[in-house]
Amino acid sequence: MELVRGYRGKLEGSLDPNAAFMVRMETVGNAEYDVCCFGVDAENKLSDDRYMVFYNQLSSPNNEITCATDGAATAFMVNLPALPPTIVKLVFTVSIDGAGTMGEIASHTLSLWQNGTERMRLSLKGSDFADEKAIIGAEIYNKTVWRIAAVASGFNGGLADLLASYGGESVEEQAAQPAPVQPNVQQVHPTPQPQPTPAQPTVQQVHPTPQPQQTPVRTTPTQVQPNSVIPPKLPHHEPIVPDYTPRPFVTVPLPQIPPIPPCAANDYRTAPLPTAPIAPPPQNTAYSTQPLPTGYMVEPESRFEYFR
Hints:
The chain is mostly beta strands. The chain has a domain at 2-169: sav2460 like domains (Lipoxygenase-1), CATH 2.60.60. The protein contains 3 helices and 13 strands; from the N terminus they run E-E-E-E-E-E-E-E-E-E-E-E-E-H-H-H. It has helices spanning 159-164, 171-176, 303-307; strands at residues 2-3, 8-10, 21-28, 33-40, 52-53, 65-70, 73-78, 89-96, 107-114, 117-124, 134-143, 145-149, 153-155. The two termini are 141 Å apart.
């Protein structure tokens, strides 16, 4: 099966992931190429350096991954069922040691073999890259089942940048970093100076001379102390005693009121009213035109009331 860049698929379609197989990597070019396979955990981190297999460490702790070199080719024997549960991905990389870039290579081939038969192949050439100094050829990872991803992408910063993306650090970079020099600081402890004791002020306590207590002189109401002010004498008021002496009863005669003389016949106060007969109003007549009797004054609004 020919793989292309960006391909992702299951291994079981081309080989048996429960049996051991070989991953063979070969790079042709003018530079010196280092091949590596390392395992990462579920957080995509290189958490266990023992599962970083390359020319300086040819196998993992239990030989789940072993490395062998044959000229320009490097082969990794992989036994996936033997890997611990913490390792969920294997990353296969190529980096350049020294001058040169991956854009200058003639070819790069990554192939999977099982039982002496080539089952998968990824073929790359220099035109697939530019200034990269390290590339990830492929990843074999466990996602419910074991799968393969043809990554075929790189890092211009080389293997150090590649490992940093997985939380790791190259051995060469660790050796290049000088250990921080601890400054030799001589601690000088100052000689403690005796603290002067503060002078306590002398306080002379003055006790007042006790004065003899004078017994107060009790005076009677008739005695007057010298230099005392005599209050003025208040005015004396005699008590008011009511007088209950009986008085003789005096009869005062009432004034005599003269009698009222009898009224005259022509007095207006007692004169009888005229008794002249008044003619009745005509029948079936709404209004009367007869003159009023002499001696009567009737308001106009009263005429209707008079004849009704």
